[in-house]
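Data card: per-record layout.
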Amino acid sequence: MADSSKAFEMQKRRGLVVWVYSLKQLKNLRRYGFVHYVSNKMKYVILYINEEDMQKTIDNLYRLHFVRDVDISYRPDIDMSFGETVGTEAAFQVSENNEENLSE
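The structure for this 104-residue chain is written out next.
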């Protein structure tokens, strides 16, 4: 019962875009992480993995013969707090080059 009193701990996740030559081996990718989306037309897979295992998983993915390339999602690295700029004059600043293009 002592373990059930602990709060659920969220793990940091990172998205990977795995470009493949063929989608026949899709089941093999499921062992590396959670398959979120599969594009049949463009032949890529969105895969979510634990951030702590990211480099090891990427190295293992590159070893697979059907993987063309692996891209890392940079969304967790982007600061998403826009509260300071939204509704202020800084959000509506326009450069001089854009004003010249609009007047033409």
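Known properties of this structure: Residues 11-104 form a domain with the Alpha-Beta Plaits fold (CATH 3.30.70.920). Strands lie at 13-20, 34-39, 44-50, 67-72.

See the next section for split statistics.
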